[in-house]
Amino acid sequence: MPDMTVLDHYVADSGPAALVLRDELIPVEGADGVFFPPTYAKGEDFPGGYNIDSLSTGGNVCLVDSVGSQANRIEPIFGREPYSKLVPQICVRAGDKTVNLLEAGHRAGDAIVRCSGLQKELHDAFAELLKGDATPLASIAPTSLVFGVWDSRDTQAKAPRLLASTIRAYDVRRLTRSAQYVPAVEYVKNNVLEEPLDKATRDAYAVRGFVHVPASGSHGGVIATGGIRREATFSLAALRLLSAGSDSDRTKLLRRYVLGLGLTAFTANVSGYLRQGCNLVLDGSKSQPRRIEEVYPTGERKPFTFLHGAALEYAAEAAKAFGISANRTVDFDKEGAKKDIAGDPDKKGKGKKAKI
To answer: Taking the model in full, what pTM does it have?
Structure first.
């Protein structure tokens, strides 16, 4: 059994402000390999495509994986062994699909759990969070406290994100690519299909694969000449804002539990496969491809030496001491969803009525 006091300086007011991690990454093909960042839709003052910001000092920074995307990759590890024993496995059955709370985009504030048999329990937990007691939410949806949650459609309760991770590439060179679709048969030339006489028909032929379709100058990935870095921060200062009201003993158990979950996620080796054409690994040519430090309010930095296995053991004991709710599956409430869409007339300003 691990000594549960060994990390108490992290939950004490005099402890470090944060833990910070930096991974030096490269594509599996090598440091000069081409990889594909995500593409984003066109928006105000943004033409769409890769999110690349030019710096006034020269060079640029390309977003490879956002904070939200990283959270969605890391959080589901708590649904798999050996991590699943650390948190309650809460699932919502909606039709033929069953969704684990760990996979819901807005966690405990997501529509699928808000409109389920958990509605009242979570509403009450968020209400207690507003009063300064995070224990009810931690017992049902503890990862909502680690990765952040906002009950934006009901109580407005918020819990800040304790663990934030982002991947960026520096000084990238943008590439383009072109392609040509060639149909298996010259359908029109061989009199298999009639010559299209209008644009709508020509477009339909192209969409359905009956004619040649060129694609020129589309996104062809990037080469990062300035390196790729994953940077993660576990905010211990924010962790110390969590409490169990005025119960100091219960507060310590709560903070140890959330700390254990956070450290487990923070030190986990999450898959670097982000999308087609973007598979990143640690840069083995670096003498220190991963660096983790404790950062104190004074600016002092100390090496962080708590390994992932130790974090997992600590989290298991902290979960046992805190006491989490049992695993369960509840049903999606279709009628409750209709009322949620229409808005509650007793909660003016909380929602607008809509036709169903």
So the answer is: 0.86
